[in-house]
Amino acid sequence: MKTISSFASRIVWLLFILSAAVTAFADPPSRVARLQYVSGEISVQPGGVNDWVPAVVNRPLTTADRVWADQDSRTELHLGNAYLRMNAETSLTLTNLTDQTVQVELDQGALNLRIRHLYDGEIYEVDTPNLAFTVTESGDYRFDVDPNSDVTFVSVWKGEGVATGQGPSVEVHRGDQARFSDGDSLNHEIAGVPDFDGFDDWCRVRNQREDHYQSARYVSPDVIGAEDLDDYGTWRVLPTYGAVWVPRVDAGWAPYRYGHWVWVEPWGWTWVDDAPWGFAPCHYGRWIFYRGYWGWVPGPARVRPVYAPALVAWVGGSHLSVSVSFGGGSGIAWFPLGYGEPYIPPYGASRNYFHNVNVSNTRITNITNITNNYYVTNNTTNVTTITAINGNHNNVHINYANQAVPGAVTAVSNTVLVNSQPVGRHAVRISEREIHSAPVAVGPAVAPSQASVLGVNAGAASSMAPRPMVTRPVVAKMPAPPKPVPFAMKQQALAEHPGRPLDDRTEQQMRIEIAQRRNGAANAPRATPSAGPMKPAPRWDDGNRGRTQPAPGASLRNVPRPPDRNSGQTQPMHTLPAVATPRPGPMTPAPRTSDENRATAQPSTGSPVRAVPRPPTASETPRPTPVSAPERPAVETRPSRQVTTSEPPRREQQRAPEPSPRQEV
Q: pTM for this structure?
């Protein structure tokens, strides 16, 4: 038996090594969640750090990031074909955000989820203290989690989904509101959805705006932030380029100058623009300078685009420092990529990713030749030097059009990136001779600090989610990805290769070392007075973001998906009649908040901001006999209860016509 165990352990270790090798160069996701609308006090806690900071519009959010909407506050996140809207006093975590998966954790408050189109194989899951809800159709959904009681409401205005927990799965259909209680037993009552309240009215206003923006004629529906273009510029059709969006800006303006840099993994240095329209033109498409004005050229409208952290080329000499004075320190400069010019990622990615991130954002005629010379792999780039693009071994030279445009190059001290400071306030002028003589680089060789992760509001006071809520256990159908390595523990490794995020293999090795140190500290003998003081074990503290993983061998099956019933048309929202159903009561209207940092101005709906739901008491609402659930071990810090579910109840339904196939790049 001992031999078998030894052999088995070797097999497990071999499989782990092979798995690490396969995932060492995993491609970044093709999408993020844009912080699109902010009203009141909204705070963000990036993955891997403990601090909360005031949120800013246009910040990209990704896996493990947490958002808190304080009293009298609301916010909206945009994910391309889907929107997440949070009411006051709501705590949300982006548990997993990939090309095919959107998994979020709702600890308390009210969340509206709107999905305009559900791609084949795409999964949306909302994890709550009482259930995990998997969406099976595009539509409009609302989730209410009461922080003071063991109740979760699921309202389906349009669409359909399945709730899972310890009991038999429960389907919730269009026009239904389900009330779940008694832990994860799935004890529930179903009635019709109630009348719209203030939060619902606000969501409907947002829906109408997002359904009728004119820029949709020129861009892919998955371009995040495109609906903001209508109010801040005009579209023109130009020779060679086709449809071009021209922003209304002041003289002397240039792309990527008014905003700040943040460090967002797995991409690294990421641009956050100050303009309310600044997300789409800074993460998709290309910029041109045409007859004295700047214009943005989107990628092909029929292609699902790939998000990029910043579509710029970097300028610098040795170690990316330009030969100007920055008060004794070195500096860095950049300019926007032009039409047809390739984006070369400074992070590890495959040939396929390199191809897609370019052809989905611009028209490149020689992409195969460029891919063969420049694609990023093994955390290096196939160029002669890591800091120079032109001059590669196959003599493929890139002529950057915007490098020669007067005023297009922006230069700052390295500390502006490190401290996430406003670029426009700290930009310096450099001569044209220095611009043309400096080589164009893959990325800035600048290592991030914790301030780089937190962003421009690092150190500012902010509200935060109540600790009892962020440590509240939730039910999860899908296993969560590994929690991020704390930034403080990998900062030294990042400094050894400045400007490049760590690859998956390196991060996984760090997780193993951290776990080994923790286990070693736990098994170490108690210190005696003669032994002297013991050195404490390193602490892995990431803001209580961890979620327990399912036991080995656990059977986790996805909910069977019905045929895609997306019709491609947006259906109007209808007010359904009020019914005698448990629903949070009305709250005191909130005072108006300033819209200084909103992405777009909102029309008044005449509806108050509602705080967290307050369901009726047990004496007001009849409760069915609770369904018994198996006993579970005591919950430790930040667990999520993985569930194994049976097939959901089947019901006869007519198959809708299949949608047109999705175009891949």
A: 0.76
